[in-house]
Amino acid sequence: AMEKSYMSMFLLLVAISCALAKDEAKKETKETTAKPKLPQTLSRGWGDQLIWTQTYEEALFRSKNSNKPLMIIHHLDDCPHSQALKKAFAESKDVQKLAEKFILLNLVYETTDKNLAPDGQYVPRILFIDPSLTVRADITGRYSNRLYAYEPTDISLLHSNMQKALKLLKTEL
């Protein structure tokens, strides 16, 4: 318990010092010449050439209207498991190619929609939602305690689950 509170305190201090450093950096850049800042892409490194949606609502709307399945990736920037999965996802040519057939959304925050955390809020987790806006509970990773978790070594499983999400779409229509 003591270690946890030290860790919490440490993370809080890191967050505060980062925020202060950003403020300081902002002041400095305002005083010097304003350089155009490159926009943070919605891919967040999961596939810069892919088209990503900005919000869950937009993703649902586009999935329904385009009749494409939606793939939602929950992750965190400071989570080593998320980073490792992101790297594997971005480097897999097969996954990137198949991802073009989906409406894509990656979230670095939890949504209030309980359907997106059917077995808890953990990262990384990947859920598939069909155009009828149903979470595909039948498309899961290999862990029974975290159904939607994937690791870098699960990239081929993720790829076959992506194929499954597309295949089921064709048979149901």
Automatic annotation (TrEMBL):
Signal peptide range in chain numbering: 1-21
Domain of life: Eukaryota
GO cellular component terms, semicolon-separated: endoplasmic reticulum; extracellular region
Principal location: endoplasmic reticulum
Lineage of the organism: Eukaryota, Metazoa, Chordata, Craniata, Vertebrata
Name of the protein in its database record: AGR2 protein
UniProt GO MF annotations: dystroglycan binding
The family this protein is said to belong to: Belongs to the AGR family.
Keyword Endoplasmic reticulum included in the entry's annotation: yes
